[in-house]
Every structure is written in C-alpha cells, then in structure tokens.
Amino acid sequence: MVFLDEYPANVHSILEAVEHDRITHLSTVGKLLRDLTRETAATGRDIQSLKVIGCGGSIIAPETLRDAVVQFPEAMIVNNYSQAECGMSISRLFPVRHQDDPVRLRSVGRPADLAAQGERAFQVRIIRGDGQAVETNEPGEIVVQGTQTMIGYWRQPESSNEAMLEGWIRTGDVGYLDADGYLYILDRLKDIVIVDGSNVYCAEVEQVIASHERVHDVAVIGIPLHCEGETLVACIVLREGYTLNLAQLQKYCEPSLARHKWPSHLFILDTLPRTAVDKVDKKRLRNQLSSSVFEALSNHIPIFKS
Questions:
Q1: Share in percent of the chain as helix, strand, coil (round to 5)
Q2: Mean pLDDT score, 81-102
Q3: Contact 74/57 with Cβ under 8 angstroms?
Q4: DSSP 230
Q5: What is the rounded distance in angstroms from the CA atom of residue 168 to the CA atom of residue 298?
Q6: 1-82 to CATH, choices 3.40.50.720, 3.30.1330.130, 3.40.640.10, 3.40.50.980
Q7: What's the CA gap between 79 and 184, in Å, rounded?
C-alpha cells in the first residue's frame, strides 16, 4: 500500500509513485484517468507494473476509457459504479470488451453480471418521482436493493428515511437501463438544470467541454433566473498557455449538444474546489462566486472571467 503525502494527489506525483514503487493496482476518478493517460503518452514513463486500473466516482467519457485501454494495454481497466451505502460495486464495466462500441462505453455495465463474477448482484430499478418504475431506456432515479446495502445512517433516522424507500436505497443518481440490462448514469439528481422547460444533465455538457483540447477541468452549474427557469454556467480551468471565450465554447458544443444545452456564461478559474474523494464540490463552487456575479447572471448580463 502506497500513500502519498498530498491528497487529492496530482498526476505527476502518482506517476512517480507508480514508477518508483512498482505499484500494481491503482484507483482513479474520471479526470485523473484522463490526465494519467495524457501524461503517460507525453512522457513515456515506465508504469508497466500496473495490472489493474480502477476508475469511478464520476461519469467517465467513452473517449477517456478508450484512450486508457490503448495507452495501458497490459492493465485491466475497470469502470466501477458504487456507493458507500451499498458497501461494494453496484455494477462495473470492462472497457476493453466494448472499446469499439461508443454506446456501451457510456454504460457502467450490467448489474446482473456481478453474479457471474462470484459476487452477490444487487437488484437495480429506475423510478419516477412518485416511486413507480419507468420503461426501458427511460431516465429516472436509480434505486438499489440487496443484502449488502446499509440499514441506515448511524443515529440519523431522518436522513435514513430520506435515503430509503421501502427497503431500497435511493442513490440520488439519474440513469436508465437498456433492453440488455446495461446501466447508464446521466447525472446527480440535484445537478439537473431546467432550461427553457427541458431537463439538462450537467454531466453531459461537462463531458463535451472536457474533450476540448484547451480545457484542463470543467464544472457546469445552473443559476436560477429572476423570471423563470435556470441558465447554464460553465466554470473552466484552462490548460497552461491557452485562452477560450464563450463564443468559441458554444461553437465547440454545437455538433454535440442541442442549443438549450450550451452554456450561456463562462468563468475562467484557476482551480475548481474538490472534495476529499476528488469530485468537484459544486456547493463550494457556488459559494465562491459572489452574490453580485449571480445577480448579473440571473439578469442575463454576460460575464466571461472570474
């Protein structure tokens, strides 16, 4: 077991540790996997000791998974979907088996397949707000049931009741199951933004923006408008030496996203606040932006830099 002095660790420290200590198993999240792949390709570091690269914690772009399979041919790459409340994997995907199928690469595998891997598989359902099951390929909240799930939060009965639904764990994630039983994650329920009466999944917009060659890191959030609905705001950390404006960003989004999914405002930031498990902390991000900036946004006043 190798523990680095700083956490979350930067990509350079991780690669140095892998090379120096001949690490065999590495756990990552989406952005880190992308950066590891890019940095390894650019520097040619000797990290052939890696046998397993696990990833998860956020939605991972198919391009990132495909590039990782190519860059690390000797390692088994596993995209894992899990929650602490469930104790272990809910579902997992092995990208090498689907590297030529961009649709399957967007999934987190088939929950039922865990049984074939010697584990107890969870029951997974997709429900509407009223608790009723949805149709195949229809999005809703992912709920999970199994002997491995928690019985509640320690000494927090109210929070436990909110998280549980008649024995099912409410994950707080929005997703859908296809006809073959593959599970697809769309976003966190709390991160859905209503634009012109339509649901926009911030994770979908973030994946598109993250593929831009000038973008190092990105978070998309919704800001309520005075009149009705919300507006999309992109907060971006650029790669060193690059610039980007809102018009350029919207043009990049055009081939991949419907018009109402384009960010209406752009902030260029030095860093994005992150949690202890290296996820973007959107609550802190909103708090970091001043009330005057939010006032301008809600009144459709364009702002291009922090």
A1: 30, 30, 40
A2: 93
A3: no
A4: E
A5: 38
A6: 3.40.50.980
A7: 12
Which contiguous run of DSSP H or E holds residue 253?
A: helix 246-253
What is the rounded average pLDDT of the residues 81-107? 93
The C-alpha atoms of residue 68 and residue 271 are separated, in whole angstroms, by 24
68 within 8 A of 29, measured Cβ to Cβ: no
With beta carbons less than 8 A apart as the criterion, state whether 87 and 150 touch.
yes
CA Rg value for the chain: 20
The token duo for 135 is: 């149709």
In terms of C-beta distances under 8 Å and separation of at least 24 residues, what long-range contacts does 8-11 make, across chains too? 8/32, 8/274, 8/276, 8/277, 8/278, 11/35, 11/36, 11/39
Contact 210, 202 (CB under 8 A): no
* 196-298 CATH pick, 3.30.70.1560, 3.30.1330.10, 3.40.50.620, 3.30.300.30: 3.30.300.30
- The token duo for 165 is 């639904």
Confidence band of 237 (pLDDT split at 50, 70, 90): very high
Structure tokens at 193: 């933004």
Contact in structure between 268 and 300 (CB atoms under 8 Å): no
Q: What is the pTM of this model?
A: 0.88
**Which string of DSSP letters, residue by residue, matches 55-71?**
EESS---HHHHHHHHHH
